[in-house]
Amino acid sequence: LRSCSATLEKPSGHRERRAGWRQTRREEDLASTAHAFLKRLKDRSLDALVKAVETKGGVPGECVAVPRTELRLGGHHVSPQYLLCRLFRWSDLPLSARLKALCHCQSFGSGDGAKVCCNPYHYSRLCGPGEEDTKTGGGIHLDFHLGH
Predict the structure, then answer these.
(1) Which of 74, 85, 138, 139 could disulfide-link 132, Cβ–Cβ 3.0 to 4.6 Å?
(2) Are 126 and 94 a contacting pair, CB within 8 Å?
């Protein structure tokens, strides 16, 4: 009986180690992609981003406009706004997440401009039926910041 329970525990521990390795790899990919992206920001944009992050959007902040592009995150392509929202606001943001620019943001309503705002506090996270939001336990949720 002991050897049977020990055998049953081994696969679980192995899966946990593999899951931990995958998590570490995802975190490394996120850090690497973010570092490469942030290095390309001009000083003014970086200052605006730092202000937004340090105040958690509590102080009205300016847009951080960057060229509309796709960034490589692991084996996926993501937008700059996804990257920074994941990094600074919602660490659990899935790749399938829908982000919507708030009305005071220059990206609001402009789906095809050459530039896009990547200030993470200029976006709301949309969750629909069947998508679980870890903050509320599920359902429809619109997370936005009224500090502007």
Answers:
(1) 138
(2) no
- Per the CB < 8 A criterion, the answer to whether 52 and 46 are in contact is no
CATH of 2-143, one of 3.100.10.20, 3.30.428.10, 1.20.120.1760, 3.90.520.10: 3.90.520.10
Domain residue spans of the chain: 2-143
Distances 122 to 20, 58, 109, 113 between C-alpha atoms, Å: 32, 11, 13, 16
> Counting beta carbons within 10 angstroms of the beta carbon of residue 86, is it exposed (0 to 12), middle (13 to 18) or buried (19 or more)?
buried
Whole-model pTM: value is 0.70
